[in-house]
Amino acid sequence: xPSPAIEITGLTKSYDGTVHALNGVDIQIKRGxxxxxxxPNGAGKTTIxxxxxxxxxxxxxxxxVFGRDTVKDYRYTRSKIGIAAQExxxxxxxxxxxxxxxxxxxxxxxxxxxxxxxNDLLERLGLSKKRDARLRxxxxxxxxxxxxxxxxxxxxxxxxxxxxxxxxxxELRRDLWQYLKDLHKSGKTILLTTxxxxxxxxxxxxxxxxxxxxxxxxxxxxTLTQELGTAGITINISDTNIELEQFLSNYKYTLDDNRLHFxxxxxxxxxxxxIKSLSEAKVHINSINSSRSSLEDVFLGLTGKGINE
Amino acid sequence: xxWVGFGTLIKxxxxxxxxxxxxxxxxxxxxxxxxxxxxxxxxxxxISEIQGIPYTLFILPGLIMMNTLTNAxxxxxxxxxxMKLLQQLPDLLTAPLSGLEISLAYIIGGTVRGMVNGxxxxxxxxxxIGMPVQDPLGTLVFIFLVSWAFSSMGxxxxxxxxxWDQLAMMQNFFLTPLSFLGGIFYSITMLPDWAQTLSFIxxxxxxxxxxxxxxxxxxxxxxxxxYVMAIILTIAFTLSSILLMNSGRKIKQ
Lengths: 309, 253
Hints:
The complex is a heterodimer.
Chain A: E1 6-15, E2 19-29, E3 34-38, H1 45-53, E4 60-65, E5 68-69, H2 74-80, E6 81-84, H3 96-106, H4 111-124, H5 140-152, E7 158-162, H6 170-185, E8 189-194, H7 197-203, E9 206-211, E10 214-219, H8 221-228, E11 231-237, E12 252-256, E13 259-264, H9 267-280, E14 285-291, H10 295-303
Chain B: H1 3-19, H2 21-24, H3 26-43, H4 55-85, H5 89-93, H6 99-129, H7 136-160, H8 164-180, H9 193-200, H10 203-216, H11 223-247
Helix pairs in contact in B: 1-6, 3-4, 3-6, 4-6, 4-7, 4-8, 4-10, 6-7, 6-11, 7-10, 7-11, 10-11
């Protein structure tokens, strides 16, 4: 069985010996997986990424990429990773195309070998007209796309994206999402950190919810929302004099005037059964409303706070 | 060894200072020309020859050395600090490059700038006042050793500094005084005994006298000692900067 793309075991990190950024993190990301790290600011997401890529020293635990240690075999592991950092870098001296050639060079790719990939990236990311521009001349969205181009210039097998759509407009966000989906389809392993719930739900096959340096829960977004999220079903009925208890004893519900409100984990499964039970009770249904649970509900349930807090 | 990565970083470092040559190459040349014009031509009429050498000619090797070492130091220190402050350094630290490769590439970049500036002032002296160069190879070796040593020192300063203010402080309170007190404009025999003794612990004194010997054939110190000092400084600063880079201090957490 091939080793996972990323394997993190018992990872701890504290800054200045006092701020405990990571408290024993375990994560395994399979080859070709789209994995999301979901958590609020300061949860430890960027620290994990920085340890994987060599920007931060780990205190304890192990971090492996394709089965090889990120410290001992750093040349191998770093060559497999492309990272789009959250913070924009600034370079006053060179046009962006030249910066991409330099970036490819750091990864051991000669100029003539890098040219097709760089042209393709500039084209695909809508930067070809700006190839001679300096970074300061780009808009925020263009800078974000340049970050992505820089991460992909050496055609890495693992792409790490730290808040890739932070601060970009809706249209560009959708464009970037589509591009990330395409990359994933082409077989890339993607590790995404985000605090946009929608982004994680839409893109990731698996997610880990992290808060205060600990992984609180891990799994597929749908599984997590089914397991931990609470969805609501509200049914308006016409007759409240019927004895409902014996028909609805399997459900958590409240009756408020003629509104029946059910709290369920999976509304798709629960709704037909509830309707069947109400039919058996000969209750006339006027209307039905259901609200799906989201990762936000899961996060709220696990941490007791919202993700943007 | 990641040779392509190493070569790319050298190209970037050299390309960086050449892309702003008005800021990194021309000022040294203009300042040196002004020194020659103002200090040399005006004071030469009042100051008798030093060690049998006309005053303008006497100060030129010192100007070459000052230009060399300040430019070599400035290149690495400012480039490293700029990369830290402008978030460019993570691009290097997350790439498959070793601390040794990064350090050496930076040092070579600074050495090229130091040598370009030093050699340009050398040519300036040869053109403006017909400066003879007795030992051209020795002169080039000195310019090279001093460029390398101070480029390494600049890398140390750049990595240790956290702001432009800190870097400027180290340069203004340490490097510039040592350069001026190293005997650019005078022979230390003109100084009182205590000041002469102080000069002996100033490494730049040996650099200036070393290059003065290779150009003019005169110096306050033995040229062999100057060579030895230049080599010691080169090795010490190179090793220190590589060790500091490998430690990740001030650049990794």
